[in-house]
Amino acid sequence: MCVSDAYGTKVWESKQKFPIKKGVTVKIDAELHEEVRQYLNEYPEGECDCIEFAASILRCSPADYGLYLNASEDVYIRLDTDTYDLIDLFDRPALFLNWRLSSDDIPKGLYCYDLREADNGDEFITIEPHVVVNHGGSVITDEPIEFMMYDHVRLRDTLFGIEGKFLLSYNDCEEVRRLYDGCRIFPFTRIHSMAQRYDAGRKSCELLIGNYDIFERGRAQPRQISMFA
Questions:
Q1: 192 within 8 A of 202, measured Cβ to Cβ
Q2: What are the domain boundaries of the chain?
């Protein structure tokens, strides 16, 4: 996008693409001209800054072009690419999608949570801020769901009381590490596949937590012995 004054002098140009409707002519008066020059003292470098600056020049909102700031507040997204199911969640309406979403993929002011399904895939068993193993879908709400510390402690106590094995996934944070002190904890990073559309290479830090050796199957596999190993 290029902005010029009434005399054809270029005052601002961006390599960022902004969807200007065909046939639209943008007129800049003296006041706006001065606003542009003042704004250029802090050149808009990020994608969000460029879009917001272009929108201010066009005297419109990014939403007029189908662009909305995401919940992470780091990029503008479009909302016309997915179809959602309307569901009832805790006696409130919510939107359901059967693949993974995050705050990168929804507009600011909405909240996203993951559903964990049972091992047999027949039912959902929990709703959590983030699920890695047995992810069954995502839900979007217009109000946050409160996950109290008591609920995390209750989950830990329930898992510690079972006779079998458990494998749990969590976001990596100090509180979770303290809760599951004594368990086998495997930290790892993963590529966020949905976020690659906006921020290539973005990763998140996760934990796999188990009450057993989570690598036992790998250790039990036959291993070839080599004198060069």
A1: yes
A2: 2-65, 73-146, 148-229
Which tokens is 203 given? Answer: 């990763």
Question: Which tokens is 34 given?
Answer: 């001065």
Residue type, 77: I
Note down pLDDT in tens along the chain; length 229 residues: 454 544 455 544 544 444 545 555 555 556 666 666 666 565 556 777 778 877 877 788 888 888 888 888 888 888 766 678 888 888 888 989 888 888 888 888 888 888 888 777 777 877 877 777 778 888 989 888 877 788 888 888 988 988 888 888 887 888 889 999 999 999 988 776 555 555 667 677 888 999 988 777 777 777 666 666 5
CA distances in angstroms from 181 to 131, 136, 160, 186, listed in the order given = 20, 28, 12, 12
Residues of 11-44 as b/e, b for ≥16 C-beta within 10 angstroms? ebebeeebeeeeeeeeebeeebbeebeebeeeeb
- What distances in angstroms separate CA 101 from CA 8, 129, 138, one per listed residue? 45, 11, 6
Burial class (CB in 10 A: 0-12, 13-18, 19+), 190: exposed
